[in-house]
Amino acid sequence: MVTQLAKKTYTVDEYLELEIASDIRNEYRNGEIIPMTGGTPNHTEIAVNLLSIIKIALRGKPFRLFSADQRLWIPDLKMHTYPDVMVAPKPLEMQDGRKDTITNPCFIAEVLSKSTQNYDRSEKFASYRTINTFQEYLLIDQYRVHVEHHVKTAVNQWLFSEYDDPTVTISLKFADVQIQIADLYDNIDFT
Fold first, then answer.
1. How far is CA 177 from CA 34, 59, 79, 138, in A?
2. How many angstroms separate the CA atoms of 82 and 15, rounded?
3. Does an H or E element contain 152, and which?
4. Which of 22, 43, 46, 82 is the most exposed place for a label (fewest CB within 10 A)?
5. pLDDT digits (tens, 9 = 90+) for 46-70
6. What number of other Cβ atoms are within 10 A of residue 59's Cβ?
């Protein structure tokens, strides 16, 4: 007979205390702590490419840009996560009582991994959509040229586009940022 051990449930405060002391990043989903997997060289390079493009395009505009080290709080779902790339308008809004956890992203991008791609497309996207300020979501495949772009067009309405052509330019609506898909995949080795 196999005995199942009960999962430990953590409070938000317990998670944050453990997370600050942790040398790895962990997501928090309604009481459960989930370790984040490490990235591949392609994953990291794509995220850096996107960060670089957006950083230059946002110069002088009222936004802040963040990498995967910035924690996001999704209060409706009691969830903490670390998007690969995130943009928030100024002024930043923080989780109550915190100076290290934002709550008002307008743009989020995730670089897809085999282990997280289904979650990123479904449950995680649904979680992000509960954030009032969230307007745009980019999913970038690290194994082939393929980008999925979701733009909020109205309450509960999202426009979906996907691209496989490296010569196409994507227009990010939140700040009129133009990105050529080839630039996202600069220096990427698919072999």
1. 33, 11, 29, 13
2. 14
3. strand 147-154
4. 22
5. 999 999 999 999 999 999 999 999 9
6. 7
Entry pTM: 0.92
With CA atoms as reference, report the closest residue to 82 among 58, 66, 63.
66
User: How many other C-beta atoms lie within 10 A of the C-beta of residue 7?
Assistant: 9
Q: First CA to last CA across the chain, in angstroms?
A: 46
Q: Which two tokens stand for residue 116?
A: 């997280």
Token pair of 38 as six digits: 């490490």
Closest CA to 36 of 48, 19, 49, 50: 19
140 CA to centre of own chain: 11
How would you class 161 by CB atoms within 10 Å of its CB: exposed for 0-12, middle for 13-18, buried for 19 or more? Answer: exposed
- Element holding 99 (H helix, E strand): none
How far CA 19 is from CA of 10, 37, 75, 89, 127, in Å, comes to 12, 15, 17, 25, 21
Span 99-119, pLDDT tens digits: 999 999 999 999 999 988 999
Q: State how far the Cα of 34 lies from the Cα of 152, in Å rounded to an integer.
A: 28
Location of structure tokens 């100024």: 90
